[in-house]
Amino acid sequence: MNPLRxxxxxxLLLIFLSASGFxxxxxxxxxxxxxxxxxxxxxxxNIQIQGSSFGTTTDLEGYYKLEGLSPGEYTISFSMMGYxxxxxxxxxxxxxxxxxxxxxxxxxxxxxxQVVVTSSxxxxxxxxxxxxxxxxxxxxxxAKAVVSMIDILSYESGVSTIKGQxxxxxxxxxxxxxxxxxxxxxxxxxxxxxxxxxxxxxTIPTSxxxxxxxxxxxxxxLYGSSAMGGVVNIITRNAPVxxxxxxxxxxxxxxxxxxxxxxxxxxxxxxxxxxxxxxRRIGNHSxxxxxxxxxxxxxxxxxxxxxxxxxxxxxxxxxxxxxxxVFMNVLDDKSGLTSIWESPANPFSAPKGxxxxxxxxxxxxLNGHYNYVYSQDLVIKTKxxxxxxxxxxxxxxxxxxxxxxxxxxxxxxxxxxxxxxxLVGLTMQQxxxxxxxxxxxxxxxxxxxxxxxxxxxxxxxxxxxxxEAYQVDGKRxxxxxxxxxxxxxxxxxxxxxxxxxxxxFRVPTVAEMFTSARRSIFTVEPNPDLISETSINxxxxxxxxxxxxxxxxxxxxxxxxxxxxxxxFIEPIPDENAVIHFQNIADARIMGLEIGLGLSAFNNLIxxxxxxxxIDPMETDSKGEILDTLSYRHRYHxxxxxGIHYWGMDASIEYRYLSRMESVxxxxxxxxxxxxxxxxxxxxxxxxxxxxGDWHLLVRVENxxxxxxxxxxxxxxxxxxxxxxxxxRF
Length: 730
Description:
The protein is mainly β.
């Protein structure tokens, strides 16, 4: 049977069979969640029945009620940012009499989200995830006062960035912004552009993010193309229980270069970012609106940017069965456009003749989803998005692009028993681009996926697969089937072990296939014969999460060994004349290990996070013989952060290390002359903040020691900048 027809039949079968469980007699659980220190009720606590889609949140006084539960025993999780998570096991539900369950949560500044949704497309304990997952909460985002989400992702284990391109465990390297092997989701919906497949980070409303989940293993079986190296899911917040208005202003000053001969302007460059947002409940519904104005002189001559950004989210709740949400972002931006520096003697200046180069454009993102809890055992979710992008380059090489993308998805999750669940879905995507450098092209894809999860005492076995076909300009380009298999063992409430293997794939982007452009010394020519690249991903890992051991309030350890084998790997390859073509190179292999730990101690006085990632990135032939080191990868990556919280003050120090790049594509290092030298990366940041009633003040200095380095050849990085942020909430 055709895989698409099989997926559709399974989807209809789930809906039909679910009717047998609908309308049965049901019980309920009620209670209150309070702060373990003050004894006051906690509003907005997330309450979830593990292994199902049933959940709720507490009201203004901390009370909650879970209804429509079949008789039996359940594990109920309670989680809230700033508090250690709590799981209540063996909660008995009976007919006709509500079960009473009240709990206390203990505050913890290190506590990051422990209930994740990305690795299996449903809520689950992070210890039961089949893949390596890390999570970032709003406290970490606010502590850095980040304007762009990319600024905080580079301080997560195994995650690095080059010119805004996301790179998880070395899978992406650098592809000139024309494609990425790490998929970005916003509220579970793909956010990549239609032509280049790159990420516009400015469309992410950083101040309105509830949490970020990073899946570091291949996710193509559930999420399709571009997820072969991992998935980043940015989940926006809902409005809080009480109405809230935020006004925030961030001011920054760049340092002059340490070398006087490098100075390219008389005055210091400035950064200015201001945001105003308002959120409130409207009956059972909620909404927030955010307006941002940003102006950045940049640390390089063509590193400047100006933008106005408007974001909004409306969350609709119609009882326990129906809920929906709509997210919108409108971005109008203008920025400098640079390729390389003027010379090693003038690394902050633009090349002569391109000092007025820039780009301006408008982007509109519209995302929405609708959830229908048909019964305790069946939940149907639909998602959709629309993306419009229009930009124009000005200066030496003027060009333009008009792009749009539409995405649709429907999925159904069914619990057949307390130990067996299935998830089946269908996705469609349509892209259209008309650009001077790409030409006029259309592409589309159709996919169906299936995931089966079976619990066997302390073990959870999950098996899934995805079938996807895509076409370009009306012609079938390729068809891929990507299975995955994973086993999780949770022998205790504080330990989870996992092993997984799966196939990944990535469809070549329009930019990789059709770009014909010349900028500065770079020339890119099209290669319409590109086909999809595939991978086999393997991982073994463990997560340990424990609390209250002596003076230690919370301790977390995560470790993983991984091996990724790629076929028909797509890389930008220059010829002897420096003309670049994107090509399917023979094969590649990236293997490595990752160890991360975090702890808080002395009643939340100190918290510490550190992680080391080691990779071995190699280009190989079809027999597995090593040919060369893959370009634009750092073999060693270490991040470390320490925070001190005392007397209402929050102080932090951060360190990021990446080893010297061993291989690049265009300008190899010349040992005799020292030209195009590459060095390791050592960056230190410090910050101190204070909250006083409705006000919060934060001072940060990034790249404290003004360390100079390059990642992309002939592009200097990160001048030192000191920032001051003031925010008021009322």
